[in-house]
Structure formats: structure tokens, C-alpha cells
Design goal:
Phenazine_PhzF-like, single chain, PhzF family phenazine biosynthesis protein, alpha+beta, 2 domains, Diaminopimelate Epimerase, Chain A, domain 1, 14-stranded mixed β-sheet, catalytic activity
């Protein structure tokens, strides 16, 4: 592995005032680290919930890793990278998705069948979600409750259940996509300590996921 690799750090799905959001590492020049084993090692070294390698910035071809595995699709890495390289679409192993900028929000369009299995667990109140301990390893749990059902406002927390040092994900677009697909309606999700994820069902099984992105360094 090269001793120094340039990468950007973004925060994706930030709150209304720019805080919170889930950190993301992006290696803009994926060619510096072409081998999958190198990429996995580098993602583990950075320790973010996900790290992205951009393999073709013009076509939007990207490769996504957690500290322990490669992903065919993930929400916050796709939203963050779409914002960073400003392309009309992204290409991931799961498929090709549209991307767009809309004022302070960046959006992608993806499909529920691209998302690995998740347990969507509804609670009666947001306070119950707030008070949850980290569940045992092995099950990927998206805990949620209505803040205002009529307005589509949701409180959520995400527990990946993996042995990679990340007990809770601050903001997870893929899980938000699954919840949106199940409920069949647009959602305004407050996740983690204060991140915001917006979603909207689209025709033919697509779902839009949007949020604010900030360049950390």
C-alpha cells in the first residue's frame, strides 16, 4: 500500500445547520489503489463506516467498502460521492443510479432490491428509540418510530451488528430507502444524534434519497 494516499472526508446527511452527518472517506483517484485487498485494508485503516474509491469520475464509477467488506450499494457513500464529483449518474456493482443537485440537497435514485437484508424494527415512541442500547452483534437493525406520522417525520437509529468497531451508524441512506419502500411514502428522517435524510418514492420501484453534504477536509 502506498504510504500516503490522498482522500477527502465528507459529512453526509447533515442537519439543517450543517452539523452531524455521517463521515465518508473518498479516494478520488482509485487508480492509485487498484487491488481489492489494498482497498479493503485502506478502508479498515481509515475506520469510517464507508470509504469510496472513484474509478471513473466522468462516468461516475465507484467502489464502496466498510472496514470489513465490499458493498454493492450504500446510501450515504453514493449521496456524498455524487455531490463531490458532481455527476448525473453513478455506477456501482448493484446498478446505475441517477444523481442530481437541488439547492442545499444532493439526491440519488436507487432500488430497494440493491440493499442487503436489514431488520426494520418499529417502536411506539421516539423516546424508546432514543433509549435503545446497542443490540447484540449479528443482526443489522434499523430502529424507528414516528415523530409525526401525518407529516412523514421519523426518528431512527441504525445498528450494523458487525465486528468492525462501528456499533451505530449516524446516517444510513440504504436503510432509509428500505423503510420508504415498505411504507410507500416520502419521509423526513432524523437519525443518530441529529442527521437528516429525505426520501421520496418514484415510479417503477425507484426511491430518491437526499441530504446535505459538507466537505470536512
Amino acid at each position: 500500500m502506498p504510504p500516503v494516499t490522498d482522500y477527502d472526508v465528507l459529512r453526509v446527511f447533515c442537519g439543517p445547520h450543517g452539523g452531524y452527518g455521517n463521515e465518508l472517506g473518498v479516494v478520488r483517484n482509485g487508480a492509485v489503489m487498484p487491488e481489492r485487498e489494498e482497498r479493503q485494508e485502506f478502508a479498515a485503516k481509515l475506520g469510517f463506516s464507508e470509504t469510496v474509491f472513484v474509478d471513473d469520475p466522468e462516468r461516475g464509477v465507484i467502489d464502496i467498502y466498510t472496514p470489513t467488506l465490499r458493498l454493492p450499494f450504500a446510501g450515504h457513500p453514493c449521496v456524498g460521492t455524487a455531490w463531490l464529483i458532481d455527476v448525473p449518474e453513478l455506477v456501482v456493482p448493484a446498478g446505475v443510479m441517477g444523481a442530481r443537485q437541488d439547492g442545499e440537497f444532493c439526491w440519488i435514485e436507487a432500488r430497494a432490491e440493491w440493499v442487503p437484508p436489514r431488520t426494520l424494527r418499529q417502536y411506539a415512541t421516539a423516546a424508546e428509540v432514543d433509549d435503545l442500547p446497542v443490540p447484540p452483534k449479528g443482526e443489522w437493525v434499523y430502529a424507528w418510530a414516528w415523530l409525526d406520522e401525518a407529516a412523514g417525520r421519523v426518528r431512527a437509529r441504525a445498528f450494523p451488528g458487525r465486528d468492525d468497531g462501528i456499533d451505530e451508524d449516524e446516517a444510513t441512506g440504504a436503510a432509509a430507502l428500505l423503510l420508504t419502500d415498505r411504507l410507500g411514502r416520502a419521509l423526513n428522517i432524523t437519525q443518530g444524534t441529529g442527521s437528516q435524510i429525505l426520501t421520496a418514492p418514484q415510479p417503477e420501484g425507484w426511491t430518491e434519497i437526499g441530504g446535505r453534504v459538507y466537505l470536512e477536509r
